[in-house]
Amino acid sequence: MKRKLSIEGMKCTHCVGNLTDVLTEDISGVKVLEVNLEGKYAVVDMDDSVDIEQVKALIEDLGFNLISVE
What we know:
Blueprint: E1 2-8, H1 13-26, E2 30-36, E3 41-46, H2 52-61, E4 65-69
Antiparallel strand pairs: 1-3, 1-4, 2-3
């Protein structure tokens, strides 16, 4: 399922790379389609079995805030 994650706290391309790496390497069933630094969002394709709370925890461990999931 394609989801848009609104994320606060990304400041540079290094942040984008870290977020992309963590989401794709640490969570099985997540594919990052786009991370937009200026728009403060990521678009991901997630299996139905992915726990959004796990996604939120990993994002927050990087120092970002998951504001909403659409």
